[in-house]
């Protein structure tokens, strides 16, 4: 068993095939939560959460029972549990999405979880239905554990950053559509309707997600040699892109409308937690200062 601690190195190029397979597997499980959980503003009922062993749905209602599903990246199994005390597992190993979907569906049926979902993935250009996807079939357990280690480290910093805001703020959660971890602060004001445009995702989904003025930041396993931290504002106020942001490795990516900080720059820094915290604070201030947020009412000293 590999024990992950600190800020593990993981080159995107070394695990891209596994990443893309895992992305589809998380969509299978995320769609179960989407179908079963009551709607919450900004789709907060659908993400996954970092757990001591991987990624979990947390408890989800279905009928008179609760269930949860966890990607256990220590034992490399998918674990499905229900409040009746039963559970089923699916091995996390090299296999196509179609096989993962079939095995997961059988496990759900065994537990009486007849949850209907759309099997077409979202927010990806090539949306191959799960039952037809024999293309994504890689699983490198060591790489997945390292990725989970990146999420664990990021979760710690984002959770501390979240605690310093007394206004409306999201949980720290992992979105399986875009395959990234995020935390989002809100000014309290409504925002203009989002134009949408995410691949294979209805514009109305983005309209709900971006219904109110926000500053969002997180981590995505792309955008750098080892992934990247990002931060953006919606709507982006004038002067946001020009705001000074620490550390020196951070920069504004104009094509994406966001600030980026390569993960490898964080990992190699003398104090990774402080480096990420400075990036989070400065990019938030870029939104709050130039967007005229009521900071005295929203921030905890």
Please supply descriptive tags for the structure shown above:
single chain, 301 residues, alpha+beta, 2 domains, six-stranded antiparallel β-sheet, 7 helices, 12 strands, 32% helix, globular
- What is the succession of H and E elements? HEEEEEEHHEEHEEEEHHH
What is the percent of helical residues? 25-40%
Distance between the termini: 42 Å
Structural class: alpha+beta
Low-confidence stretches: none
User: How does the major sheet shape up?
Assistant: 6 strands, antiparallel
Please indicate the count of domains.
2
Mean pLDDT over the residues: 97
Sheet-strand content, in percent, reads: 15-25%
What is the C-alpha radius of gyration, as a whole number of Å?
Answer: 19 Å
Organism: Actinomycetospora flava
Protein name: DUF5996 family protein
Pfam families: DUF5996 (PF19459)
InterPro entries: DUF5996
């Amino acid at each position: 068993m590999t024990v992950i601690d600190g800020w593990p190195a993981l080159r995107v190029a070394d695990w891209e095939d596994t990443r893309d397979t895992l992305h589809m597997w998380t969509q299978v499980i995320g769609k179960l939560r989407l179908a079963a959980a009551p709607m919450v503003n900004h789709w907060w009922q659908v993400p996954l959460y970092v757990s001591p062993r991987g990624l979990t749905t947390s408890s989800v209602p279905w009928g008179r029972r609760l269930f949860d599903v966890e990607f256990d990246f220590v034992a490399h199994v998918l674990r499905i549990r229900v409040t009746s005390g039963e559970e089923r597992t699916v091995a996390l190993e090299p296999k196509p999405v179609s096989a993962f979907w079939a095995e997961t569906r059988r496990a759900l049926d065994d537990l009486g979880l007849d949850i209907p979902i759309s099997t077409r993935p979202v927010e990806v250009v090539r949306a191959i239905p799960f039952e037809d996807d024999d293309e994504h079939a890689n699983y490198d357990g060591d790489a997945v554990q390292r990725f989970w280690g990146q999420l664990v480290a990021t979760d710690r910093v984002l959770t501390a950053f979240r605690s310093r805001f007394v206004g409306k703020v999201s949980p720290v959660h992992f979105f399986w559509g875009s395959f990234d971890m995020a935390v989002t602060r809100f000014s309290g004001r409504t925002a203009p309707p989002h134009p949408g445009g995410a691949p294979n995702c209805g514009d109305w989904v983005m309209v709900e997600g971006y219904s109110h003025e926000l500053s969002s930041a997180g981590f995505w396993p792309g955008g750098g040699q080892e992934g990247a931290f990002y931060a953006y504002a919606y709507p982006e106020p004038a002067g946001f892109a020009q705001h000074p942001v620490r550390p020196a490795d951070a920069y504004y990516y104009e094509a994406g409308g966001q600030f980026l900080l390569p993960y490898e720059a964080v990992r190699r820094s003398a104090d990774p937690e402080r480096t990420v915290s400075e990036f989070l604070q400065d990019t938030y201030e870029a939104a709050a200062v130039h967007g005229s947020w009521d900071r005295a009412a929203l921030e905890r000293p």
